[in-house]
């Protein structure tokens, strides 16, 4: 169906251009399929759900006016309806991004990978039998396979095919001090890092069960990846072209060094540990590895065509669409670059994050609850009770003292990757 829509889209765009002199337009067509298995903890059974979608999104420009519309479609005859809806919504101002660079005529459609309920069930049973700590009960688990094909069609005849697939699993385990939620994800058919997930769950349970003492607020903080990654996700917001790039002070810092030398940040579509892969973004711009912070120096932001135009820079292939929305800057595999810095002699090590449903209740502030250990000379000497952390961004990263080698990517944090992060004492007594 998508291939037939793409051919029809070219004809509809030609007709639209004839009918609306001086206008420009594009159609973004997407077909998605999804399969989920929900684990019923009380019975040990799985509930299967499958579904799909076929959407067309239109963007139109005429002078300083622009419009956007997206609608579900069932055939080529409905494409004109989407273009007409976008034209009716045209208004002045930068509500819709400007037309991007010419897209390559990549006329070879990508194949749709098969979603398999049998494979999903086998992988789910293997995961549950492998990663859950002894004596723990899984409170909830969700397993999902998804695949999408896209075609971007421009009024000038440009055509770009895209596609992605993903297989992921989320598990929730209860402890006496709260729940732990963790996940794994990979492109469809790739292996999951189950040993890493098993180790994190086991360490989390150990940190949150048993006698615990109050934390020493005077010790440095060592945040292991599961606790550090919400901070990295907040840093991602600062480095998006529609997030921190709207802050004049941060924009003025490009080319300067607002962070310590131990901090480097990258977004890499081909990172071997990353949770997804992408060749072109949803605006037809090639995706390449981006170094956003280099040893404390701010180099730039993740950009869609629109945010790049507002700052007068080139788009860098991060214009991504959520269902029913225009392209906006987004990451592929965003992470803090690992280093292997030495740890302090004495420190508080936070290894497990208690699930609180949100870690950034308002932009620029990370709030989380985490438990762990007090460590002397590399030895854990006592368990510390979970502590509340409220950390302002980007100020907290300006105090960063060290970065570990243990980079881990987390589907629960927008696919961001974090190694161990070392900070001075940040807790208040």
From TrEMBL:
One of its GO terms (molecular function) is metallopeptidase activity. One of its GO terms (cellular component) is cytosol. Pfam families: PmbA_TldD_3rd. GO terms for biological process: proteolysis. Residues 219-423 form the Metalloprotease TldD/E C-terminal domain. InterPro entries: Metalloprtase-TldD/E_C, PmbA, TldD/PmbA_sf. This is TldE protein, part of TldE/TldD proteolytic complex. SUPFAM superfamilies: Putative modulator of DNA gyrase, PmbA/TldD.
């Amino acid at each position: 169906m998508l291939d037939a829509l793409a051919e029809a889209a070219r004809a509809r765009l030609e007709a639209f251009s004839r009918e609306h002199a001086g206008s420009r337009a594009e159609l973004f067509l997407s077909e998605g399929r999804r399969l989920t298995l929900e684990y019923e903890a009380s019975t040990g059974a799985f509930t299967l759900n499958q579904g799909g979608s076929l959407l067309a999104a239109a963007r139109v420009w005429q002078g300083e006016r622009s419009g956007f519309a997206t609608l579900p479609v069932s055939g080529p005859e409905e494409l004109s309806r989407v273009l007409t809806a976008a034209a009716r919504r045209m208004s002045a101002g930068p509500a819709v991004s400007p037309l991007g660079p010419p897209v390559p005529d990549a006329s070879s459609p990508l194949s749709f990978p098969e979603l398999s309920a049998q494979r999903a069930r086998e992988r789910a049973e293997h995961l549950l039998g492998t990663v859950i700590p002894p004596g723990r009960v899984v409170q909830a688990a969700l397993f999902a396979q998804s695949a999408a094909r896209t075609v971007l069609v421009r009024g000038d005849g440009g055509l770009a095919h895209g596609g992605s697939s993903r297989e992921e699993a989320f598990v929730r385990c209860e402890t006496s001090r709260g729940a732990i939620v963790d996940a794994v994800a990979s492109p469809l058919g790739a292996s999951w890092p189950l040993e890493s997930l098993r180790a994190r769950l086991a360490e989390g349970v150990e940190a949150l069960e048993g006698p615990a003492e109050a934390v020493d607020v005077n010790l440095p903080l060592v945040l292991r990846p599961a606790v550090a990654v919400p901070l990295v996700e907040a840093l991602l917001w600062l480095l998006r072209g529609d997030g921190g790039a709207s802050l004049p002070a941060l924009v003025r810092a490009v080319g300067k060094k607002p962070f310590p030398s131990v901090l480097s940040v990258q977004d890499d579509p081909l990172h071997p540990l990353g949770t997804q892969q992408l060749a072109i973004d949803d605006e037809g711009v090639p995706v390449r590895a981006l170094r956003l912070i280099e040893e404390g120096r701010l180099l730039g932001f993740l950009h869609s065509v629109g945010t790049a135009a507002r700052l007068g820079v080139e788009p860098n292939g991060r214009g991504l669409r959520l269902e029913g929305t225009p392209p906006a800057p987004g990451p592929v595999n965003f992470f803090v670059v690992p280093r292997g810095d030495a740890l302090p002699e004495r420190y508080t090590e936070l290894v497990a994050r208690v699930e609180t449903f949100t870690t950034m209740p308002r932009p620029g502030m990370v709030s989380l609850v985490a438990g762990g250990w007090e460590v002397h000379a590399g030895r854990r000497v006592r368990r510390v009770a979970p502590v509340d952390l409220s950390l302002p961004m980007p100020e907290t990263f300006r105090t960063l003292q060290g970065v570990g080698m243990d980079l881990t990517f987390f589907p629960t944090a927008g696919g961001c990757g974090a190694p161990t992060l070392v900070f001075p004492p940040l807790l208040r007594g």
